[in-house]
Please model this.
Amino acid sequence: MRTDTTRRDLILAAAAAPLLAATSACATSLSARTRDAAAGQIWTFDTLTDIGGHPTHVEGAPALTDSPWGQAVKFDGVDDALFIDDHPLAGAEHFTFEALFRPDGGAFEQRWFHLAVDEPTPADGSAPIGTRFLFEIRVVENEWYLDAFTKGEGYNLTLIEPTKRFPVGQWYHVAQTYDGTTYRSFVNGVVQAEGPLAFKPQGPGKSSVGCRFNKRNYFNGAVREARFHAEALTPDRFSNPFRTT
Model:
């Protein structure tokens, strides 16, 4: 025969079961959200509309073209651009900004991916700070080198190394990261330049691909994908198809 203590234990266990199930479901949901946050946003340029699920505005005549991973968007270096209603790194204290692109030569200065903060004009009429992230390239004959840049209140740093050049007309993975102290740029997982940075999280805004946000320095080439993470990934965690180890 069961004792009163045994009956009480059974009653308590039965009462706790729904709470334990709910707690488990909540933990599973939280774990899934954490994984999603770690995965970051992915923008795939296999369309000219709704890049990353955001309203996308087309200027000029960018066109879809083939890449080794599916379709990409080709820009003519004259007036082709996409403007996207989102700043995917807004609020991030640490970050990784990755992209797969193919530079095809052309003008020396090409600013091909710009994340711009929406900033009001100061009351005194002076120019806004121009808080932003940029991926740029410099083209010298049939070679290019990377220029990564970020600017905001109290910080401004360009990462560029003109001696580290690569042939045009090929696909590359590029990245820029910030781990709380150091800002770094990469091509195919290899550091190009780095420096200390007193970074502050940026506010919401918009993005341009194919030119600077003010419609200058147009890009001649193609873009397949961009990824944005609110953490500083190490190169072994990049979505880099050219990684050899």
